[in-house]
């Protein structure tokens, strides 16, 4: 047998009948109290303050503390639980593949500390906002591969984002390869909306798949591509060579981004091209994409089952301990 009070479920509600003892106890306590009080007859009460002492006021708390402790003890015996329930609610969820450029130029210092670090941080915050989306990650330089298949486990996606480094792929900028890898991951998706966010800071100069060929495939299967060009205007401190030990040598280099290509890719798929010359601009771009891509879906939300009797048992022990200390220590009667 059970009862429901709000979202609280009591496994053993029969114990609540014990609460009837509380008013009986309080009635007995206050009726018997005069019998426990010693009366002294005085011929004159002049000079005796009618003010009640602090001990007298504390003594009145004793039955209340006992009653509260008993009450919480009974609730604990009834085994309160948060029920496991499921609810249908409206949410906004789509399938998103993020493409991150890992060419050496992403280490340029026109962002603090560099383009890649900032891009990773902003992308991570974007992932946090997309609560019900399935998200995947593709990386590219001179070649491309899927770093994280599309998943609802955003913790995994963020872990992969945080671990990205330049130099793990042959250097270069194979935009077509990166886009083709992401589109391939979305071709079997049944989501109402499929989106690719492609972030790069260079010009396509590697790979055997042309960027516009990959864009045409994306259009055919209903994938919308948002492209982001990352880099300041003019020149920036960038890697210009690499030592035998793997460390990069930095120098001033011209910022070159094929904006025309990125506009064509985005335009042909119904997306949009953005240029980010600072971290704030990149943050705003992701916020705009977040607002543009909203698709309402039905989501079943499960609420976990949790035992709550320990909390009520703790309250009971606290009240009973205070009552014990008052009765046997602070307000102890000396015969």
Q: List segments where confidence is low: pLDDT < 50 over at least 5 consecutive residues.
A: none
Tally the structural domains. Answer: 2
Using the 3D structure, state the CATH architecture of the largest domain: 3-Layer(aba) Sandwich
Report strand %: 15-25%
| CATH topology tier name of the largest domain | Rossmann fold
Question: Rg, please?
Answer: 35 Å
CATH homologous group name of the largest domain: von Willebrand factor, type A domain
Spatial ordering of strands, largest sheet: 7-6-5-8-9-12
Oligomer: single chain
- Gap between N and C termini, in Å? 50 Å
Condensed summary:
The protein is built from nine helices and 14 strands. It is an alpha/beta fold.
Give me some keywords for this one.
single chain, 335 residues, alpha/beta, Rossmann fold, 6-stranded mixed beta sheet, 4-stranded antiparallel beta sheet, 40% helix, 25% strand
Q: What do these coordinates show?
A:
This protein is 40% helix and 25% strand. The protein is an alpha/beta fold and 335 residues long. It folds into two domains: 3-36 and 53-84 and 304-330, no CATH class; 89-299, Rossmann fold (3-Layer(aba) Sandwich), CATH 3.40.50.410. The strands form four sheets. The chain has a six-stranded mixed β-sheet with strand order 7-6-5-8-9-12, sandwiched between helices.
Protein topology:
Elements: E1 3-5, E2 8-10, H1 21-36, H2 54-77, E3 80-82, E4 85-92, E5 95-101, H3 115-129, E6 134-140, E7 144-151, H4 154-162, H5 175-186, E8 194-200, H6 211-220, E9 223-230, E10 235-242, E11 248-254, H7 259-269, E12 273-276, H8 279-292, E13 296-303, E14 306-307, H9 309-330
Parallel strand pairs: 5-6, 5-8, 8-9, 9-12
Antiparallel strand pairs: 1-2, 2-3, 3-14, 4-13, 6-7, 10-11
